[in-house]
């Protein structure tokens, strides 16, 4: 097994691990230093991809990273 293959495998595993991390709106609010209402407006408008689970919003970490990349400050 080559070093490159090992590094590539680690990158894939890291990406899969990131894809499984789920955040709550309060987590996003804290991470981005936004008011919670701002986060809920982004969720309700569909600008920040998320899903509702049992009436509560859940945001995948990967979707949050993509959102930040698309909306630089």
Automatic annotation (TrEMBL):
Pfam families: HTH_17. InterPro entries: DNA-bd_dom_put_sf, HTH_17, SinI_DNA-bd. SUPFAM superfamilies: Putative DNA-binding domain. Residues 23-71 form the Helix-turn-helix domain. This is Helix-turn-helix domain-containing protein. It comes from Ruthenibacterium intestinale. The lineage of its organism: Bacteria, Bacillati, Bacillota, Clostridia, Eubacteriales.
